[in-house]
Fold:
Amino acid sequence: MTKYLQFLLASLFFLSCSTPEVPKIPVKDFYVLPEQTVIKLSPDGNYISFLRSREGVVNLYTQNIGTGTVYRVSRNDSLPVQDYSWVNDSVLVFSADTGRGLSPRLTAAGRSGGWLSFLTPPGGNARLVDGLPLSDSLIIAAYDPAGGETFNALRINLYTGTTETVGENNGSIIDWIADHKGAVRVAVASDGSNNAVMYRAGEKDEFTLLVTLPFTDMFQPIMFDFDNSRIIAASNTGRDKAAVVLYDPKVRKEVKTLFSHANVDVTNVMASYLKRKITGVSYSGFMREYQFADKGFETMMVKVKEQLKNGEITIIDSDKNEEVFLIQYASGKTPPAFYIYRRSSNKLSMLEFSQSVLNADQMGETEEFTFPTGNGAMVHGYLTYPANTDRKNLPLLVMVHDGPWARDNFGYQPEVQLFANRGFAVLRLNYRGSTGYGKNFWKAGFKGWGTVIPEDIAFGVRSLVKKGIADSSRTVVFGRSFGGYAALISLANYPELYAAGISHSGFLNLFTYLNLIRNYGAGRFSSMIFEMVGHPEQDKNIVQHASPLYRIQDIRKPILIAYGGKDPFTPVADINYLTSELGLKTIPVELFLQQEEGRSFSLQKEREFITLLESYLTSMITE
Structure:
């Protein structure tokens, strides 16, 4: 072999082993999402339906799967569609704003947009409660003629126009549950802190109390079983993790645990109206997972997973014969894709609008990240690495989820992939106080806004630094609303751990927040919020220590803050005080104040913020 040939072969081997450089992808490409949202499947499996904006107003559309023909179902030029459901093969019901703000009107329409029929009068507030899958003509609606939220239960016949009040609200009822024949037999009530579930054997009977629970306990009726005698509910009563149970109202107790999980709450039930049985549940761990009680559905999921690998699969909808399914597939790298799955042929067909402008091979990989906290509780999260890196000594962006009584899930988030593309590892944590991991994990965050939650975030950061994955000198904490608040309080608690913090509409003064809650809805929710956050008088020291405005002396790192001038929780005077005091300490502060915006920004202003955010974070890497 000649020396030239040896050199050539060595060069080719080197090139084959080298890691291709990932191009810098334009910011706008990360925010190209499908125009279609809230996608559903018609009962006969021949149409999909979706919401889509038309000249800035959300309308309802259907599309024939076979021909591709699209129909505009609603005729709203100024009033957005808020929610909808198929009732039978040819009729949909939707609610649209009547122009009075929070006063949707319920409307029935043909699937091809040929006709409309108003089901509730103008001026009231209405929403669909149950489309009653076993009936082609009846629906259950919630309706307040005064336009408020004291909803009575109505049973409406779509073809005769007959409306019957089948449940009267005493002022505390927040939900109604009908059996499969359309009889409303369960009512859920709340005073803001305590919940009650009431039951009646028939609509001619009076409601009687089944159970009263504090807000920390759950007994959430989902549906009746298919003989209409017992209730299927999600419950954490007497247990830590919520489970799906069978409850007998005659003896007023749970008679069977149907589905449970050792680590996470289980609340989402799948039912077959064809087989008249519960077929399984889905729940969220790292990704959405399933437990099946039906071998046919379990086998179907195995076949789907063989075709859609390395991602999260969600069964969105099915036809009434359970032969055609609407499937969502999430890789976490690009926006979710939607498929029609035909069971008989085991074939998947991607819906055309699911095509993404992003190349998945250039996107960051998301992996599960777990660690124990100081008290031994296990925190779960998501760590996204930049593509084609050695995963060592990376700049780190910690993105704190809003809530805090929520959780991060697997899936595509534009900012995660945007900043992974810019070279950051991106960490998202379900800290103590997040939901989905049981009652005790959730309650561990009570009155811990300024202690427990930032401590968990710090534990996660230190773990990555210790492993050599993250660079401690280039770690930034960022969030919106509560997440923005958590970024600021993290800077105050752990100034040595972060290079900077970024807060979009983060709370500055928790006394302001709590007093607004006290006055909202005549204080209906104040006792619950005070127990979770702290009482402004009885827990004054806790609240003060947890308020960034009272911790300015502890903030020693640069911040970028974005606020709307009409944000009720953060007066402009507080924003000016924060920036002024930090300026006196020569702490760099970049302020993006939009006087005409609220807590959430308009699309244009949000784009301007993202541009600023990209520039700010890029400077953290290059300086």
Observations:
- The chain is about 20% helix and 35% strand.
